[in-house]
Amino acid sequence: MTSGIGFSEIFLILAVIIIFVSPKDAPGLIRKIFKIIAQLRAAVKKFLDEMDVK
């Protein structure tokens, strides 16, 4: 079983954002969301790497 976000999930998230947020503000919000996701993934990777070392 693979765990990850596929195209359909990303499309659904973007559609919800566009519906609830004005089109003018959507690009900035989407960038912030993807930045947070990248930071979270990096933190999880760092934590897992540290757990493997010890």
Give the overall shape, derived from the CA principal axes: elongated
* Low-pLDDT sequence parts: none
Q: C-alpha Rg, in Å?
A: 15 Å
Q: Please state the oligomeric state of the protein chains shown.
A: single chain
What is the first-to-last residue Cα distance?
A: 28 Å
Largest sheet: none
* β-strand amount: under 5%
Instruction: Give the proportion of residues in helices.
Output: over 70%
Q: Class by helix and strand content?
A: mainly alpha
What number is the mean pLDDT?
A: 82
**How many distinct helices?**
2
Q: Write down the secondary-structure element order.
A: HH
Number of strands: 0
Description of the molecule:
There is one protein chain. With 54 residues, the chain is mainly α. The chain has a domain of 33 residues. Helix content is 78%, strand content 0%. The radius of gyration is 15 Å and the shape is elongated. The two termini are 28 Å apart. The mean pLDDT is 82.
Blueprint (SSEs and pairs):
Elements: H1 7-20, H2 26-53
Give a quick summary of the entry.
This protein is mostly helical and 54 residues long. The protein contains 2 helices and no strands.
Pick out its properties.
mainly alpha, 2 helices, elongated
